[in-house]
Write a structure and sequence with these properties.
Layout (H helix, E strand, L loop, with lengths): L14 E5 L3 H12 L3 E5 L13 E3 L14 E5 L6 H10 L4 E4 L3 H11 L12 E2 L11 H16 L13 H12 L10
Parallel strand pairs: 1-2, 1-4, 2-3, 4-5, 5-6
Helix pairs in contact: 1-4, 2-3
């Protein structure tokens, strides 16, 4: 996939749609809220859990009654494999900017194989991460949520740079600092 085909929204405009309300989905919402994403959660059992007040709750499944998606929607399918194929097809055919399927590699390939015949355009698969996330290590719900949000954040900011620890980039960044950028504020520092 070329750089021009990658998602180019940023967190100030990105909309996060989460299908499902399990532990991992709740952890993802907590993290995304801290990063100022606009968040919608779609599931039938939402009332069983506390949600941040800024999160929009839709008390039915997207597959039951798909709605028009806001621009720059990044959709996470985290429904314990319930209707994964239909969710992938509906989200891609309804113009989600990117779709993230929480699944093992084997399950993800099975979903892709089943979804292909129902997609309006086979190139829509370029907007699907299956399995989703960036390999950061760990397997708890919080670990998986962080892995997903890391990929979403990477895509929202262009997704074209290789991922690597900042320590590996120190020398190239020092050279930039020496060229007059050293007076800029530290990234992440709030005024």
């Amino acid at each position: 996939m070329s750089n021009s085909q990658l998602s180019h929204s940023n967190t100030s405009t990105a909309h996060l749609l989460v299908l499902g309300c399990g532990e991992m989905a709740r952890q993802l919402v907590k993290l995304a809220e801290q990063m100022d994403y606009t968040i919608t959660v779609s599931a039938t059992q939402l009332d069983q859990f506390p949600w941040p007040t800024r999160v929009k709750l839709v008390h039915h499944h997207f597959n039951d009654e798909p709605w028009s998606l806001p621009a720059s929607t990044h959709a996470v399918i985290a429904r314990a494999h319930e209707e994964d194929v239909q969710s992938v097809v509906n989200l891609l055919n309804h113009d989600a900017e990117h779709v993230y399927l929480v699944a093992s590699a084997a399950r993800a390939q099975s979903v892709i194989n089943e979804a292909l015949p129902s997609l309006n355009d086979k190139q829509l698969l370029d907007r699907l991460s299956a399995p989703a996330g960036i390999e950061l290590g760990g397997n708890s719900s919080a670990d998986i949520a962080l892995s997903l949000l890391a990929e979403i954040q990477w895509r929202c900011h262009g997704g074209y740079k290789s991922l690597q620890p900042l320590n590996n980039l120190r020398h190239s960044r020092l050279n930039k600092s020496a060229s007059g950028q050293r007076n800029q504020s530290c990234p992440g520092k709030r005024p």
